[in-house]
Design goal:
The protein is of the alpha/beta class and about 500 residues long. It has 16 helices and 26 strands. The radius of gyration is 24 Å and the shape is globular. The chain starts with a helix and ends with a strand.
Length: about 500
């Protein structure tokens, strides 16, 4: 496209150089992705200032730069106040503004985003809609999984993905909105038809510095610029705050406080969850394979959002009943020796507490918890998670989980500081495969081992290198190939 066409409607302070004849063949905010004819965005404000790579970008073929300050570089420059917002607007224009032709149900919150988007997809597909899913475990277009790198992609990737979805016939997108995405303006220009707040608990304090700022980032999403209506969990402290002060229509769900959508007569078992769903005063019996109270919250969130979106109650019920397990989320592996392994993505204090609590409700024997904490992330939560694991499990194995640029032993030592305040029933084993093997070796009939933190991730991030690793494969190494099951049914992974 002509650069001048991409700039239509963009608030720029001035243009340096002649851009009249420039044709843009692609967009990039990373010099490693630049090809000849690309427009390069100099992003600033966080760990790396893209302005420092401008000369490199030009040397690799960039035909123009979007900047927040004029640079001494021989290349046309578009000066803007916020290069991230400009990137979102230009990425949308470059891809034909696909978001304007799609419907969106977005989900933000510390925990439950991924499963909630899959519940939404199941319900809307039951209504005959073509659905796209964007989130932590990758992207899905009409039931076909695509690779993904971030919970919420950067605008360049995001709008290209939305264009692909639109061309594939997608009508509605169920999308996770991470706190970083909100703060970094990744979703600028996209207005959700319904936005969900699942909960806000401790996470990402390495980036935000305090719970107040983290919560503020999440809550800032619920404005007319980003959503037409919202659905909030009134059992969550911040959900109640949003209910009291949102500038858009609010619908509620919960189990402990008065809400528009709730469940009664809840029965949790190894076969799944049975309950009566009160969907805005319509009562429906639900039998689902999904396990755990936290998954019930996710189901309520999706049910409320889809009803607000326009789905009929019988369609909501059908979608909840037919919901299939999400890989890496409470996946139950029943082993030959009458023991079980549960693999889950839980990586925050709240989610670890939730998964261990849910397993306690279905496990006949002891619980062995195997988990670690990621490097170069919120270190404050490490001892807290050590306390939680030792308090809720019978035995804990503290191990590695994406140490990144930190020493694994130092991370484990911080987790151990919390663990030893509660119990002596733990061991530290740095190698995750060895840690899992230790846990499996000590399982007795009726016991359950909970592997938390990685879920469906297929890598271990060590010193900037993502090496092949999978919790599923680590268990398979001990037992060979197996099906994983959630509830009464089993399906090949």
């Amino acid at each position: 496209m002509k650069l001048t066409e991409l700039l239509v409607g963009l608030e720029s302070e001035k243009v340096v150089g002649d851009i009249g004849k420039i044709q843009v063949k692609g967009l990039a905010n990373d010099t490693r992705n630049i090809k000849k004819g690309f427009l390069y965005f100099c992003l600033s404000g966080y760990s790396v200032d893209g302005h420092g790579f401008a000369e490199e970008a030009v040397g690799q073929g960039a035909v123009a730069l979007v900047v927040e300050r004029v640079l001494e570089v021989d290349c046309p420059q578009i000066l803007v106040k916020n290069s991230r917002i400009a990137m979102a607007e230009i990425a949308a224009a470059f891809n034909g503004r696909p978001a304007e032709k799609l419907k969106f149900i977005t989900v933000t919150g510390t925990n439950g985003k991924t499963s909630t988007t899959y519940f939404i997809s199941s319900i809307l597909e039951s209504a005959g809609k073509s659905v796209g899913v964007i989130g932590t475990t990758g992207n899905v277009i009409n039931g076909i999984k695509q690779s993904g790198t971030l919970t919420t992609p950067d605008p360049i990737e995001l709008h290209a993905l939305l264009k692909k979805m639109l061309e594939s016939g997608v009508e509605v997108v169920a999308m996770e909105a991470s706190a970083h995405a909100i703060t970094l303006n990744k979703l600028h220009g996209i207005q959700a038809d319904v936005a969900i707040l699942t909960n806000i608990t401790q996470d990402h304090l390495d980036f935000y510095g305090s719970m107040e700022k983290y919560a503020e980032a999440k809550l800032s999403y619920f404005t007319p610029a980003y959503a037409k209506t919202c659905v909030v969990n009134v059992d969550d402290e911040y959900g109640r705050k949003l209910l009291a002060g949102a500038g858009i229509p609010v619908y509620t769900y919960g189990l402990e406080n008065p809400a528009g959508v709730f469940a009664v007569n809840c029965m949790f078992s190894t076969g799944g969850t049975d309950y009566f769903l009160n969907l805005f005063d319509e009562l429906i019996n639900i039998n689902t394979k999904m396990l755990g109270k936290f998954n019930l919250y996710n189901a309520l969130a999706a049910a409320a959002a889809c009803k607000v979106f326009g789905a009929a109650p019988e369609t909501v019920a059908k979608g909840l009943r037919e919901m299939e397990p999400v890989e890496g989320r409470f996946n139950v592996i029943n082993l030959p020796n009458k023991t079980s392994v549960i693999i889950d993505y839980a990586h925050t204090p709240d989610s670890l507490s939730n998964i261990l609590g849910a397993v306690r409700g279905i496990c006949k024997g002891r619980i062995i918890s195997v988990f670690g904490c990621g490097g170069n992330r919120d270190s404050i939560k490490r001892p807290t998670m050590g306390k939680i694991s030792c308090a809720l499990a019978d035995f804990t194995v503290i191990t590695s989980d994406n140490p990144r640029f930190e020493e694994p032993e130092e991370i484990i030592a911080q987790v151990e500081q919390g663990a030893k305040q509660v119990s002596e029933n733990y061991i530290c084993i740095t190698d995750r495969v060895e840690a899992i093997a230790y846990g499996l070796k000590n399982l007795q009939p009726g016991d359950c081992m909970v592997l938390s933190g990685k879920g469906s991730e297929d890598y271990m991030d060590v010193m900037g290198v993502k090496r092949r690793y999978s919790d599923f494969e680590a268990v398979e190494k001990q037992y060979g190939k197996f099906p994983f099951s959630e509830g009464v049914d089993a399906a090949e992974r």
